[in-house]
Every structure is written in C-alpha cells, then in structure tokens.
UniProtKB/TrEMBL annotation:
Residues 10-20 have a biased composition (Low complexity). This is FAD/NAD(P)-binding protein. Signal peptide: none annotated. Residues 1-20, 664-683 are annotated as: Disordered. Residues 30-216 form the FAD-dependent urate hydroxylase HpyO/Asp monooxygenase CreE-like FAD/NAD(P)-binding domain.
Length: 683
C-alpha cells in the first residue's frame, strides 16, 4: 500500500502494513502524544533515518492522541478564532537552520510566515501542498504579513502541515499509525517489550520503546484552590481553578457579574478576549486614533491583579537595526563550566544572575550602539572593552553606562523592569487606574517604536540565557532553594514577563476595556480572601491601601502548576501511583523542593524508574511534564533551539537502539550525558 497524500480536512497517517513486506517483524515505537513535541521528534526521525536506519528493516510508529497530529490539544483548530499567538508569524518555526548545532542533518524548512506566503502567491509552494479547507483560515493566510500575530487556528494549520511533511519524508520502511484515543497505562519490564493500554480497546499495543510526549497537562485543584472551590460550591458562586483558557467553561459567569481575576499574563489576556469580544463586544477606532470598546451588555466586570500588578510587557514588533549580537558572550559554555568547577553549592542570585544579567545587557547595548549610534557617546570597541572587564553590579559599570548612554531611557534597568509598582501606592482606585493606563500605553508605544530596538537585543539575549541554564540545573549544584524560588519561581516569571507578553494590540484593547469600565486594575501583591457571611470573594492590594473589592466569582488566570500527584493524564497518574516514575525532589540542609515534574536522565531523557534502579531503558519522556523544564516545541528561527537539539538527540538514540535491538541505558553517544541538552524552559 502506498503512503496516501493527505486530505485537506486533516492529516492522513499510513496504517500498519506499509513499507517492505516480509522479513523480520518490524521494530515498534509508541509515542504518547501527537502534538508539536511529537511532530518535532518525527521530523528529526525523518531527517536522521537515511543515515541511521537500515533500508531493509521495518519500523512502525504508533502515535497516540485523541487530538489531531501536528497541533495536538493546545493548538487544535477547534478553538475560538479570536485567540491569537503571542509571536509574529516570522518568529515561529519547526525546522533546524544554519544556526542549529544538532548532530543530525540540518533540514531547513519554512517559518510560519514563509509557509503562509505560498497561499497568496508571494512565495514558493511547499510539498505536500494543500490549501486549508477552512475558508476563514485560508483568507487569513493569504493576507498574513510576516509581522502579524496569527490566530491559533493558523498555527494549527501550519503544525498540521509540518506533520504531513515529516510523514512524507520518512523512508518507505518506516510507517506511522495514529490512534485517536488516550493512552491510559504502560507496563512492561526494563528488559522486555512495553504494553501501552488505550482507552478505546481491550488489547494493548506492544512496543520496543515508548516515548511520552503529552505536552502541557492539566491538574486537579489542590490546597487553596480546593478550599476556594469548596467555598464557591457552598455559596453557589463561580470559581475557576488554573485551567487552559481555550478549554475553560465560562458559561456560568453572568452579565454584569463582578469577577476577580488573579493573574495578569497570557491566560488573563485570553480570558479577557473570550469574556468581551467573545460575548459580542466590538472595538472601533475613534477620530483621535484611540481605540474604543462598545459593550454588548453580556460582559461581566473584570477586576484584575497579580504579584506585579501590571500586564506582561508587549511583544516587540520591529526587527534589529544593527547586526545580530554574537551570543553567548558572558553566559555561555565557558561561564557554565567555570561555575560548575566551584567547590560549593551555587546560588542563582549570587552566582548566576550577575552573569545572566550581563549577557542581557550585552544584547541590549550591542543593538543600541550598532542600530542607534547617534544616541551613544562612546565608540563601540571602547565601550565593549570596558563592559567586558567590569562586573554587571558595580559602580564602575554604572558610571560607564551613564557616560556612554546619555539618555536614561536607553539604559537597561532590569530591576525597574521586573517590579514597576514597587514602592508606589495610590490614595484612590481611580488614581491607580490612571497610572496603570499610562504605564501600559507607554509600554506599547515603546515596543512598537523601532527607535527602541535595543529592547529586542535584550530579548534575544534572554533567549540565549535560557538555553544555557540546563546543564546548571541538571548538575544538582544549585541549592534546592535556588531551584524552587529562583529557577521555578522568580526566573520563570521574569522570563515570561519580559519575553512572553501579548501583542501590542491586545494591550490597546485592554486600555479600551479599562476606559469603558469593563476592566478594573487591582494592583500588585494581590491578596484574595473569602467572606463567609456574604458568600463573596475579596481582593486587596497594598498598591491602593484600604481598598477592598468584593465579587461573586473568582478566576485563577494562570496555567496549572505541574503535579504528578494531581495530573489529569491517566498514564502518568498510573505510573506515579504504581511507583514506576520519580518526581523531581531537590533537597539540601536548608530546603526541600518538590517540583511536580517527572525526573528524566539528563543525558538521554529516559524516565527514572525506582523499580529499575535508574533510567528505564525502554521509556523516554520529553517536554513540559519533565524536569528538562518544558523545552519549547517550536522556536524563533536562527536561535539554535534547545528543543530541536533534544528532539534530534532522542531521534538518533531511538533509531540506533531500535536498529540494533539493544535497549540499554547508555546515552546516544555511548557515554552518560552525551546526547540530550537540558534546557530549562520555553523560548
């Protein structure tokens, strides 16, 4: 049977039986999850197979996911057309490129913007070519500019095509079968076949190796969320624990109801959209150019606050004016090696952050001096020589920057960026509304003005820093407190705040909603409570001392924290309860940190199994649920994505092991830690 050409309505997957007939039974790989992570792994299998997979040997791959291969659950087409990405089309790719340091073949492919251009006739056609069947998606693709922020349904179409392309590039001896269901369990000894049980069939699949790639997972409410849910049930109030916005049931919120939203990041932005435009509201541009919101009357009133009390910074919408900074410079492999050579435990703030901050500063000033030299008072070579020599946190560095960069608006102040409301308080709620509206308007204007492209230099440096952290986290040399409060706490939040904000137009919509009275700002260090007498939720903030907001609904506007104990994924839950996997627990004399993440071997991503006494030789786990810290499944072009490096290393491991029929716990190059990078989070 020939591998069929995909139909526009959805990806087609070759059934079992394709490929050369006869001979030994095929090697079998089961991949649980078929979203972007699994798709990226499949692309790397296709790239590496010509050099590592014997042409005469058959390999059959089971993909197990109730959602469509490519987009998976998070990026599925079946979600509101109002929801958008927080990246420009030109900044999204699933392919390796000239900057990639993968060990396997580099196989360039189009970014989302380049792929979309074929539908308007502005670019080459990419095989396999098929126009999306949804007319609204096709119309958006035809009009999409590289600097537009696409809808998630457009990203779904791109990911579906990437999956189709990977499928078409597999050699004839490799076949793929999609099981549109949920994997509920995996059993099998370390030295024998693995059996994967599916929700819709009694007989399990049998595989030589299993890869867990479920992506981002939900979790049952715990602790305070469970108590708040119980309060809401007692008083017949609305409470939404941390949830993926596109999956949330918001129908219980009444028009005009007061709702407290705790969280000011991307989840809040999605909820804001669904509860305003999603309920029939409209925007129009006033004669003075400002945006105005026209309510439908079906919106609730949204009261929003968070730890910082301000929304994430808007995404930049410009390109570098100067050459790309040569990262890394101050926080790269040499710096990491020097840190690991120290004979004491490492602290994030004391040992790592000064070097990380200096790398971010290098990116910022490299772009300022090269893209806007008229705003500097010193030549770049002289500035760089002094910058390289001086510690980031020193009076000498502050003096250098002050003398070389006359305008304070061009200087990088990471602490002021991190907590813009620190030390501020306002006498009335209205005075705070005015202040925060001004803060948001200035942030959007700066992020869309190419005169401030130095901010993009800092952003790119931030991505580079993220990619250098994994060996330090995986080494076990950081104190437990530094991982808990630093890496998983402050650093993750700081990175997201600066690098993962919404498009500028979303923040202009937020301003319009604020002016219309649909959204009210609560402030920073938000405290949420309950009042049993009135059956209401309460919110207070030191930003507006003495002011309390009461509401009949509460939304936790952020994603669920990782938790193996409370995960909604039945397979991981079964393995955890059966003692067949290990939660990451970091402990030292002063602190114990239970991250809720699945522990994998840092060398080859094999699941650490207490029963096997180490890495399970036949089970591998990738992505969000693991302590590789949620390596991003897609990335910005030319950033040497850690996720792509991990996919490549694991693909090569799988092909070698399956071809040889040897499933020992050695890493891809035959020595511990050789093959899989250990990134710390999304890029």
């Amino acid at each position: 049977m020939e591998r069929r050409a995909p139909e526009p309505a959805g990806p087609a997957v070759a059934p079992a039986g394709d490929g050369p007939a006869g001979g030994a039974p095929p090697a079998v790989l089961a991949v649980v999850g078929a979203g972007p992570r699994a798709t990226g792994l499949l692309e790397r299998i296709a790239a590496n197979a010509p050099g590592l997979w014997p042409a005469e040997r058959r390999l059959h791959i089971h993909l197990i996911d109730p959602h469509p291969p490519g987009p998976g659950r998070v990026w599925r087409r079946d979600q509101s057309p109002l929801l958008r990405m927080n990246s420009m089309a030109e900044d999204v790719t699933m392919f390796t490129d000239e900057a990639s340091t993968v060990r396997g073949p580099v196989r360039p492919g189009p970014s989302l913007a380049e792929w979309a251009a074929q539908f308007s006739g502005d670019g080459p056609r990419y095989a396999p070519y098929a126009e999306p069947s949804d007319p609204e998606v096709l119309a958006e693709l035809r009009a999409l500019a590289p600097t537009d922020f696409p809808t998630r349904r457009v990203q779904s179409a791109y990911l579906e095509w990437v999956f189709r392309r990977a499928l078409s590039e597999l050699p004839p001896s490799v076949t793929v079968e999609w099981h549109r269901t949920t994997a509920t369990a995996v059993t099998g000894p370390p030295d024998g076949p693995q059996r994967v049980r599916l929700a819709d069939r009694s007989d399990p699949l049998t595989a030589d190796l299993v890869v867990l790639a479920q992506g981002h997972l939900g979790a049952e409410p715990s602790g305070r969320h469970a108590r708040l849910a119980a309060f809401a049930r007692r008083h017949r109030r609305f409470h939404l624990p941390p949830e993926f916005s596109s999956d949330a049931d918001l129908s219980g919120l009444r028009p005009g109801e007061d709702v407290i939203l705790r969280g000011f990041g991307l989840a809040f932005v999605d909820l804001m959209v669904l509860l305003t435009e999603g309920r029939g509201g409209r925007y129009r541009t006033a004669p003075d150019g400002t945006l105005r919101y026209l309510p439908s009357g079906r919106e609730p009133f949204l009261h929003v606050g968070s730890r910082r009390g301000v929304p994430y910074h808007a995404k930049t919408r410009y390109r570098l004016r100067g050459p790309r900074p040569p990262f890394p410079r101050h926080f790269g492999p040499d710096a990491v090696a020097a840190l690991l050579a120290r004979d004491r435990p490492l602290d994030l703030r004391t040992d790592l952050w000064p070097l990380m901050a200096k790398e971010i500063g290098f990116g910022h000033y490299h772009e300022l001096f090269h893209g806007h030299p008229e705003r500097t008072a010193l030549g770049w070579p002289d500035f760089l020589a002094a910058f390289d020599r001086l510690p980031w946190y020193s009076a000498e560095m502050a003096a250098l920057v002050a003398s070389a960069v006359p305008d304070p608006a061009d200087r990088l102040d990471l602490e002021a960026l991190d907590r813009p409301l620190d030390g501020l308080s306002f006498p009335t709620p209205e005075s705070f509304q005015d202040h925060l509206r001004d803060h948001i308007a200035r942030d959007v204007a700066r992020r869309e003005d190419p005169a401030y492209s130095a901010d993009l230099g800092a952003f790119l440096a931030l991505l580079s820093v993220y990619g250098q952290l994994p060996p330090l986290v995986a080494s076990g040399r950081l104190t437990a407190r530094s991982v808990a409060d630093g890496i998983d706490g402050w650093w993750h939040g700081f990175f997201s705040f600066l690098a993962s904000g919404p498009p500028g137009f979303r923040l202009r919509q937020l301003l319009a909603l604020s002016e219309a009275g649909v959204v009210r700002f609560l402030g920073g260090d938000l405290r949420v409570g309950t009042d049993e007498e009135t059956g209401t939720f309460t919110a207070t903030s030191p930003t507006v001392p003495g002011h309390t907001v009461t509401a009949t609904a509460l939304i936790e506007a952020y994603l669920p924290a990782p938790s193996l104990e409370r995960t909604e994924d039945p397979l991981l839950r079964a393995l955890h309860r059966g003692g067949e996997l290990t939660e990451e627990v970091l402990s030292d004399a002063t602190h114990t940190h239970r991250s809720g993440l699945l522990s994998v071997d840092p060398g080859d991503a094999r699941v650490l199994d207490p029963g096997a006494g180490g890495p399970h030789p036949r089970r591998i786990a990738l992505g969000a649920p693991t302590n590789s810290r949620a390596v991003a499944a897609f990335a910005r072009p030319r950033t040497d994505s850690p996720g792509f490096r991990q996919n490549d290393a694991v693909a090569r491991l799988l092909l070698r092991a399956l071809a040889a029929g040897e499933f020992g716990a050695a890493s891809p190059a035959g020595r511990p830690g050789a093959g899989v990078p250990r990134p710390a989070g999304p890029a």
